[in-house]
Amino acid sequence: MASSTTGEKKILTLKGGDNEEFILEESLVLQSELLKNMVKEERVSSIPLPSIKSKTLVKIIEYLKKHAELTPSNKEEFKNFEKEFVNVVLEELLDITVAVNYLKINGLLEFCCQAVADRIKDKSVEAVRKIFRIESDFTPEEESEFRKETPEAFEGDLDDTTN
Amino acid sequence: LSVLPSEILYELLLRLPVKSLLNMRCISKSWFALISCPIFIKTHLKFSTQNQDFRCLFRAFMRIASLLTLALLMQLCIKKNLPIYLYLFNLIFLAMASWVGACEGLFCFFNQFWVLFLWNPTIRKSKKLPFSGLDPHCGQSSSCGFGYIECQDGYKVVDIRGNSHGDVFLNVFKIYSLRSNSWKRIQDYP
């Protein structure tokens, strides 16, 4: 199916996880390596993204629009926008990061990873385990060994809330 | 969020400071394996030294360290009523002789008994090097160097002693490799 054309701009529809549709210019989605390949190979006009929540998709599209408007003169403004962009609850930031990784938007992925790293760097081991839903697979002996060797790892920021 | 994709985990860990990485080894076996992996450690070092802040911090640290030693020495000689020049002389000696070199976050220096040490300040670990076999007190000239060789992926320390034998002045070269933890004598150089 050929993509629909209005004037000279090609229009593309993205379908979020809850079937909500987002109509945007094709040039915007080309920032995503994954969508770029899809558009190029199959000439599609609608792309379903069932693994991405609509809320997350809204945020990502907001970024794509801002990034497309980036010029040397509004660099400062864009930096402020980026800072605000990751200033969301941790759960949402993780959703965005996973989606951006899937869509392969490289610049944004690096920025999101740095933001997540900054959020977890001072957290205690227990908190990080809870945030990423990781069960310890160490034996109780190994676990107590760690507690003896690096007690500070278990004394950091205990806050494990992601919202 | 169900499971964190492994490529994101990798990118995430690359961006954590060494201090938190050491703590995060306790998360699970797979995190421990990833953080302890030599390839990861190398990539992390490259990634963090790309950051200009790191280098500035490093330089600032060196400057503060030398100022602190100076202040301490001054205090000492005022307390003990000893001539300041003696301590200044000592300090210059310390500054000239004890720091062999610093490279990629590792420091190499020797203590007052001429024993060489490697020191990694970020993980607060140091390693005493084996004796090079070259007597530090004999030899009319001596020199030491420390560096990293990219193609061999290893840290090396070079110890050079010069001695005159009759009319001929001979330099003895010994190279220490951190990888094999041993010294090797290489061809003498006149």
From TrEMBL, chain A:
Transmembrane segments: none
GO biological process, one term: ubiquitin-dependent protein catabolic process
Pathway entry: Protein modification; protein ubiquitination
Biological function: Involved in ubiquitination and subsequent proteasomal degradation of target proteins. Together with CUL1, RBX1 and a F-box protein, it forms a SCF E3 ubiquitin ligase complex. The functional specificity of this complex depends on the type of F-box protein. In the SCF complex, it serves as an adapter that links the F-box protein to CUL1.
Pfam family name, one: Skp1_POZ
Source organism per UniProt: Nicotiana attenuata (Coyote tobacco)
PANTHER family, per the entry: SKP1
Region listing for Disordered, in residue ranges: 139-163
Sorted UniProt keywords: Ubl conjugation pathway
Lineage: Eukaryota, Viridiplantae, Streptophyta, Embryophyta, Tracheophyta
InterPro entries the record matches: SKP1, SKP1-like, SKP1-like_dim_sf, SKP1/BTB/POZ_sf, Skp1_comp_dimer, Skp1_comp_POZ
Keyword Oxidoreductase: no
Name the UniProt record assigns to this protein: SKP1-like protein
Domain spans labelled SKP1 component POZ: 11-68
Highest taxon, organism lineage: Eukaryota
Acidic residues: compositionally biased ranges: 152-163
Assembly: Part of a SCF (SKP1-cullin-F-box) protein ligase complex.
Family: Belongs to the SKP1 family.
SKP1 component dimerisation domain residues: 107-152
TrEMBL record, chain B:
NCBIfam families: F_box_assoc_1 (TIGR01640)
Coiled coil: none
SMART domains assigned: FBOX
InterPro entries: F-box-assoc_dom_typ1, F-box-assoc_interact_dom, F-box-like_dom_sf, F-box_dom, SCF_F-box_component
Record's keyword terms, sorted: Membrane, Transmembrane, Transmembrane helix
Protein name as it appears in the record: F-box protein cpr30
Any Pfam family: F-box
Gene3D superfamilies per the UniProt record, alphabetical: 1.20.1280.50
Occurrences of domain F-box (ranges): 1-44
Residue ranges of the TM segments: 61-78, 84-117
Origin species: Nicotiana attenuata
